[in-house]
Design a protein that fits this description.
The complex is a heterodimer of chains A (about 200) and B (about 375).
Chain A: H1 3-7, H2 23-28, H3 33-56, H4 66-88, H5 90-96, H6 98-101, H7 107-115, H8 122-152, E1 154-155, E2 158-159, H9 163-167, H10 179-196
Antiparallel strand pairs in A: 1-2
Chain B: H1 2-7, H2 12-19, H3 41-71, H4 77-110, H5 117-124, H6 135-147, H7 163-174, E1 183-185, E2 193-195, H8 197-203, H9 212-217, H10 229-241, H11 247-267, H12 279-284, H13 288-295, H14 306-326, H15 334-367
Antiparallel strand pairs in B: 1-2
Classes of the chains: A mainly alpha (about 200), B mainly alpha (about 375).
Chain lengths: ~200, ~375
């Protein structure tokens, strides 16, 4: 198996910062670290297994109805995750609310099935799906870390910024909790990445 | 540009910026004929700075005056001015040090020339924030405005939104405790905060509002630059006399506000409703006058076409009143109205230009 399959999604072809997929959920669920981590793991699970099964079925799926078959596959895993979260992590599932169900619309999953799994063997497809899910999750965690730290002064719900700072006049930034600032943060990450990796800059 | 290549030092932009501060270098073109308008960026910027001086001076005096009233201490005229000066000085230092620091650094990195664009932004920002804004928050807002509002788009002249308003919007959304538009803070008096005229009007407490004369002259608490409509009008006269700002935008903003204001008056169910506030009072309340004169007319972010300016200004005035009257969440609508129309200014221009092209095309075909 080629190294690129599991290396590229983290940096060179990151689904969020390079392919600009899955932006909606990365703005919506990154206010706090905990839901962001759960979301990252859920998406990783769904991309991995739906890519795996799409690859297994790739020779039997008629080309004309492949999108609907993919949707059925993806929704199967999304429902599994949704039920799992409701059973074992009810609080987090309530925080994530509709966004667990909306994993089905996450462009990364369909994108990877279309672009990779339908043309490759099951094992590389599975690795590709997992790596893309983790690449997406990585950005989610970075965003949530910044947003929870500066927006609420906490990390995983524990207060990190000492009370004495607040008494000295420090205030939480209310803008960073709002989605527009998350979009700006994504922009800044893309800026940083393009500063490092010059070949991404369009001529 | 030629000089720069010759010197080749890494601090070229910085050196050049100081050498040519507000003045054009005395190098002249050697060959060919060149006609240039003397009204260049440097001159435009310095005229705006001059036009802002009346509001700044009044703002400084008013800080001291409001302190004297709120704290109940007797103060002479010069004492008030000195008090106000000491209060506003740190805001200016932060605004210019942070803003120009980023401006110089980014010009250096990109090899651009540093220009006078930030002079005006840096002058406006302290005028439109509460005088009690903590300095670190102001520094953050300035950095945000310069980097996200301006430099990412390519620097002066390329920004979509007015950078000073971006700084204010940042404060408004990020630290609502230090400015929300419905409360005022008076310098040097702890825990003193009253309702702005806008908040009183929104609650229907018309009797709590200061008299129209006071709001016109500016003897009310508020952000340093926005209280005195008189000082702003002097600034407007300077801008118009030198042809720096567009009279069309100023006039159409006022028309837009009055049109919606009178419409509200006509629809008002009873005299205690916000709808019943006389339309002309909106013009002297809050940041309307300051926004209409200094912010909406920003030549970079406003509409460029002559017809577009009328539409752009009218909608700013109209949205301001709509936001003020119908949205209890935002007592002051001027900032958001201008930012919104900044966003749409290119679209307005596009439509105006397309319409013109179509009109002329039709005329050309008929003549064939």
């Amino acid at each position: 198996m080629k190294k690129e399959i599991y290396q590229n999604p983290f940096f060179k072809a990151n689904p969020v910062t390079v392919l600009v997929l899955g932006i909606c959920s990365s703005l919506a669920v990154t206010v706090k670290l905990e839901p962001a981590c759960v979301m990252a793991l859920s998406v990783t699970f769904v991309t991995g297994f739906s890519s795996l099964f799409a690859s297994l079925l790739r020779n039997t799926i008629p080309n004309r109805i492949r999108i609907i078959v993919q949707l059925v596959l993806v929704s199967l895993f999304v429902i599994l995750i949704d039920q799992f979260l409701k059973a074992y992590a009810y609080e987090v599932s309530k925080q994530l609310s509709v966004y667990v169900g909306l994993i089905i619309t996450n462009c990364i999953i369909m994108g990877r099935i279309e672009a990779f799994a339908l043309g490759n063997k099951p094992w590389p497809s599975f690795v590709d799906g997992i790596a893309n899910g983790l690449g997406y999750g990585m950005i989610l965690v970075v965003l949530a870390f910044i947003r929870e730290l500066f927006g609420s002064g906490t990390l995983f719900g524990f207060q990190v910024i000492p009370q004495s700072w607040y008494e000295a006049g420090y205030m939480n930034n209310g803008l960073i909790i709002l989605p527009p600032m998350a979009l700006i943060l994504v922009g800044l990450i893309i800026w940083l990445q393009r500063g490092i990796q010059k070949d991404l800059i369009e001529k | 540009m030629e000089n720069k290549e010759k010197k080749g030092s890494i601090f070229d932009s910085t050196i050049e910026a100081f050498q040519s501060f507000l003045r054009v270098p005395d190098t002249v073109t050697k060959s060919g004929s060149h006609v240039r308008d003397c009204n260049d960026l440097k001159r435009v910027m310095i005229i705006v700075v001059v036009a802002l001086i009346p509001t700044l001076l009044f703002g400084i005096y008013n800080i001291g005056y409001q302190h004297s009233i709120a704290s109940g201490t007797e103060m002479g005229f010069w004492q008030m001015v000195w008090f106000g000066f000491l209060k506003i000085l740190p805001l200016y230092l932060v605004s210019y040090i942070v803003g120009l620091g980023i401006e110089f650094a980014s010009a250096q990195i990109r090899g651009h020339e540093v220009n006078e664009g930030y002079l005006v932004t840096g002058m406006i920002i302290p005028l439109i924030v509460p005088i009690t804004t903590p300095l670190w928050i102001l520094a953050l807002a300035v950095a945000f405005a310069v980097i996200i509002g301006k430099e990412v788009f390519g620097g002066t002249g390329m920004n979509i939104w007015n950078p000073a308003l971006i700084a204010r919007a940042f404060l408004f959304f990020a630290y609502p405790a230090s400015m929300s538009g419905d409360k005022v803070w008076v310098a040097g008096v702890d825990g003193y905060s009253g309702a702005t005229p806008l908040a009183d009007a929104a609650l229907g407490n018309f009797s709590n509002m200061p008299s129209a004369l006071d709001m016109f002259l500016g003897f009310i608490p508020g952000c340093p630059g926005e209280t005195s409509t008189v000082a702003i009008l002097i600034g407007a006269a300077i801008l118009l006399f030198f042809g720096v700002a567009s009279w069309k935008i100023m006039l159409s903003t006022v028309i837009g506000a009055l049109a919606i204001g009178y419409l509200c008056n006509a629809l008002a169910p009873d005299t205690s409703s916000y709808l019943a506030l006389p339309a002309w009072e909106h013009l002297i309340m809050g940041g309307f006058a300051f926004g209409a004169v200094f912010m909406a007319t920003d030549p970079v972010t406003s509409a460029q076409t002559e017809t577009g300016k009328w539409i752009y200004g009218f909608l700013i005035g109209a949205f301001t009143i709509i936001l003020r009257v119908f949205n209890p969440g935002y007592p002051e609508g001027m900032m958001l109205a201008i930012l919104l129309m900044n966003t749409f200014a290119p679209l307005i221009d596009y439509c105006v230009v397309q319409r013109n092209i179509k009109k002329r095309l039709k005329r050309a075909q008929i003549n064939q």
